[in-house]
Amino acid sequence: MNSSDPVVFCGMGGSGSTYLRHALERAGMTVHNKPDIVHHRHWVKQGRKAQHDEFARRADGFTLDSTGIAGIQHYLDQVSGAAATTAVLSTWAEQQLLRHTTRRRVVFLLREPAAAYRSMCDPDRHGDIAAQYGGPDSWYAVFYAERWRKTAEEYLALRAADWDVSLWAYEHLPDHARRDGFGEIVSQWRRSAPRLRPALAEETIDLIRTCTREVLEVLDIPGW
User: Helix crossing, 202-219 with 140-160: angle to 10°?
Assistant: First the structure.
């Protein structure tokens, strides 16, 4: 990796962000594990102290000095200034907050939304969260589709604003990573099959794809 390495990565659940985090660590990076997740509604209701403690735990001791945009900006600046340090983020992209900070290089990791949702709802991953809403074939699929769409829209907004952004599609991860100079982190990549059926009902698959169709057409990724 070189001086043009991205400051941060952004990944949706089910899109390979766990693999990405471990791969970056194997390449010698200190990787903050989605500390921004504490700004998701599930963590906000736990209160500020719980949020502060969890953020510091996920961010290798880094803290937020504000709950506003200034705090996000300061954190990203700290990560940028720390040698061999990066972060895999989630919530700030979904909440479309990155666009309000100083422009920087960002890599987005996304997977075809129905396949990503299916992966995230696996019982060995986050199936317990889906179960709280009634299982994968529930309105939870709409919540996920909205998060996916907003994350993709943040990528498109930053690209339109001439930020140095890249999109790595899960389905084409090795090619996209190598294109951007990260070939060494995909040497152990093993893509899993979507296995949408019978895990998801046809209505659920159609619902997710309908909710994300417009942005999918703009992204125009082969295989999606």
Answer: 0
